[in-house]
Structures are given as C-alpha cells and as structure tokens.
Amino acid sequence: EDQVTQSPEALRLQEGESSSLNCSYTVSGLRGLFWYRQDPGKGPEFLFTLYSAGEEKEKERLKATLTKKESFLHITAPKPEDSATYLCAVQDNAGNNRKLIWGLGTSLAVNP
Amino acid sequence: SAVISQKPSRDICQRGTSLTIQCQVDSQVTMMFWYRQQPGQSLTLIATANQGSEATYESGFVIDKFPISRPNLTFSTLTVSNMSPEDSSIYLCSVTNQETQYFGPGTRLLVL
Q: Which of A35, A100, A105, A110 could form a disulfide with A47 if both were Cys (CB 3.0 to 4.6 A apart)?
C-alpha cells in the first residue's frame, strides 16, 4: 500500500539556522513526488515536483532532493516568512489513477 | 499554474442543514478534485469531478452525502448534505495543470 511519512512533525528554528525536512515514501512505482507549502487558513501552494532519484530542484532558500525511498526539503538560512506547514505527496504510476497520497506535514516555525 | 477561487471562504452551519461550496478556475481544466482537510490529518480526496460524467468518489465518501456538479470546464460545486459536527473541516478544490495539482484557498466549515 502506498504510504507517505513526514518527519519531524514540528520543527522550530532560529532565523539563519539551516535544516532539512524528510519525506519517506512507499509506492509500487513513482510517477512523481510533490512538495507544497501551506499557510494557516490557506490552500496548499505548489513548490516542487521530483520525478526520479537523484533529481534536485531549488527555489530561493529551498532545495528538494529525491532518492528511491525518500525526499528531503533543505531550508538554507531560513527567515520568519518561511514559517508554514510543508506537505509532501506522491503519485503512483499504476494505471490511470492520478490520486495523490499525502503525508501529515511538517510544521515549521522560524523565530527572528 | 491555475488561479482558483472558492465560495464561501468560511461558514458556520447548524447540524442537519446543507452547504454548497463553489469552485471557479481561470482556465479550462479536465479534472477537478475535492479534498477534505481535518485538523491534524492529511488531505483526504473526496472525489474527482469530471465534466460530462458523474463524479468518481473515494472509499468512504458517497454521492448522497457529497453531491458534486461539474457543469463546465471551469466550475464545480460540492454540497455537504445533512451536516453533523464531524463534517467540520476545510474543504479544498484542486485542479491538474500539466501533471501538477493546484489548490484553491479552501472553505472552512464549522458545524454546530
């Protein structure tokens, strides 16, 4: 059964303190792994899609990487505005099912 | 990407009543999705709304409780029927554009 586990559940950083969020997944065949950011009271905002092991993508202070079992979202020198919940989801490549399997998210707080 | 709007943004309803949530997209899309996000839980797919055919519901969700309309390629509605406090949640509309799912701002529902 497809499954996504994110860790840690919550993370508190000081401004400028770099860290990484983890997304471990189990899927029969990976079509894509997706990272989203969600602010309180808002819908998820798309960040990255990764398709194959070894792939990396960057956007400002964020870099996402992918292996065959997990993905990391690296946050370099975070700022308070990076505080949000970060969600990971995977899509199986079996058949025509485009359903996303979601993790519970990591709640990140960056203190000034 | 896609720009998605939802109405209402939030509502407080009495048990036993029904609420219809509207989702409008700024471009024509083939697939629209409705999700529920309950506190402390991951996003849960309710159904996929396809234009010109009946919605496809996920396990645990039925049409009588969550009827969906999809009259055209830019609009859909989700009705939460005969509500109970357990239906209190955030309801999210989502569309797929070039293999990526984009989300609306959500509708925050509280059932008393």
A: A35
What pLDDT, in 10s, does the model give residues B18-41?
Answer: 999 999 999 999 889 999 999 888
Give the amino acid at A67.
Answer: T
Taking the C-alpha atoms of residue A107 and residue B4, their distance in angstroms, rounded to an integer, is: 24
CA distances from A22 to A60, B79, B101 (A): 19, 36, 21
Is residue A97 over pLDDT 70?
Answer: no
For residue B101, the chain A residues in CB contact (below 8 A) are 34, 46, 100
Of A32, A45, A103, nearest to B42 by CB-CB distance is A103
- Judging contacts by C-beta atoms under 8 Å, the chain A residues touching residue B41 are 104
Distance of CA B24 to the CA centre of its chain: 11
Question: Dihedrals φ, ψ of B27, to 5°?
Answer: -150, 160
- Cβ contact B101–A41 (<8 Å): no
